[in-house]
Amino acid sequence: MEQKRKVYEELNQFGIHYTIIEHPAVFTIDEMASLDVFRDNPWVVKNLFLRDAKGKRHFLVVMDKDKKADLKYIRKQLGTSTLSFASEDRLTKYLNLTKGSVTPFGIINDEEKAVEVVLDRSLVGREYIGVHPNENTATVMLSYRDLYKIIETHSNQIHIIDI
Fold this sequence. Notes:
The chain has 163 residues and is α/β, with parallel strands linked by helices. The chain has a single domain (3-161), classed as YbaK/aminoacyl-tRNA synthetase-associated domain (YbaK protein), CATH 3.90.960. It has helices spanning 3-13, 29-34, 71-78, 88-95, 144-153; strands at 19-22, 45-51, 58-64, 84-85, 115-120, 129-131, 138-142, 158-161. It has a 5-stranded mixed beta sheet with strand order 4-2-3-5-8. Strands 1-7-6 form a 3-stranded antiparallel beta sheet.
């Protein structure tokens, strides 16, 4: 099943209100910012897929697009060993995603509930958050509350921290 369709079906199943913005494939937050439709919009987030030093814990970090990820500070709040970016092989294995398509909707593919979702506290309560629907050719706009609901429904561990 097409990745986007799977996400849209899940959103519809839960009665979540959302808007879809189709666009050319983007692989970085800078490429996203270059698209006219996203220029200067505070609701776009960036997503990082991280692992601990032994590769036993994996984290999907969702944060404001303008913030820099201080991995040492994130690690301290999560109480884990040194964090680094996970390989594309791990991204495929755990979330069935490809580079450039990292998104919290990836947990829909995480049947083992192995990936812990880390949400930036500054996102809490936002009316709109823009994330890819598991493909980098579209952005789904939905509320923080509804995004949280989807993650919670899949039973992945959730951390809300300051980034």
